[in-house]
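Slide 14.
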Amino acid sequence: MKFKKIGKTNIKVSTLSLGTWSIGGGTVGKTSYGKFTKKDSLNIISKAHSFGINFYDTSPTYGFSQSLLGSYFKKKRDKIFFSSKVGLNSYKQKKNFSKKFITNQIHKILTELKTDYIDFVKLYCPNPKDKGLIDGYETLNKLKEEGLIRHIGASLSSPNDLLKFNKNLKFEIIQFNFNLLDLRILDNKTINYIKKENIGSIARTIYCFGVFTEKFLNNWSLGLSKFQDKNDHRNRWNKDQFDLWVNGARSIKKKFNNRLKIENIATRFPNSFDFITSSLIGVQSEKELKNNLNKKNFFVLSKQQIRKIINMNKKNFFITNKSPEKIIR
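Slide 15: predicted structure.
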């Protein structure tokens, strides 16, 4: 495992970290990856820890993942770092960044994580025009002064939002979509700002919600276009969107002469950029976790390989206007 310092902090985190939405079990509506047992979830958390992962991203919206992290790391708290989010308890609710809501949510997160402090707390996909953000940010700063949280950040709905926030909002960490077919973060102004302010940057959706796996590509070829669990959030999307992603993934494999699995290319891609601190890996089995943490995945792609991927994206835009708003924002 390799480690890298997050922005201005003195915290070094694993360059591949565990995202826990995929192992949080079912939640109301099409807002999760479907049913998943707590036993399987704990096994993945345990295995991730044994492989050297020390950064765990969670949220009150991720089913039971937050409470399971608290249970597993109760006696190992000083060895790992928790990152959670505030502003939303359920995908069925509206975001709320009020002082009362955030304060109550922080205390609930502390209880579920079985800890007396949270290393990183991020505003959940805030709209830069939301007038309540200042109050929410000031509330987090007060909680930081009280020692309940250590660092403040934002999980961005769109990478382009970073430059739209009130300049009084000083984020120490940000999280955003970044993968082989979503290069919105690769904007010179945005990257220069991240580097100038020395903001820790966490890449999410690096496997494009599971599309960038050999299993998915093979199933798609066989016409298996539906996800078994009716509450799998990916059932909200139309076939056109998946066709775009699948065709894009196959084109990338061809550029690598089909020598590498798509998930291995996807794992190596974001960490090939120096402004990325860590990439979140989402899995649903120990086998997937082991493959994604293969030592070869810690090698960066060559400049030529990166250029091929970027040039392909310049010729095509891989997000349809029919996709859920959360994806295209």
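Speaker note: The beta strands are 3-5, 12-14, 16-19, 55-57, 81-86, 118-124, 149-155, 173-177, 200-204, 278-281.
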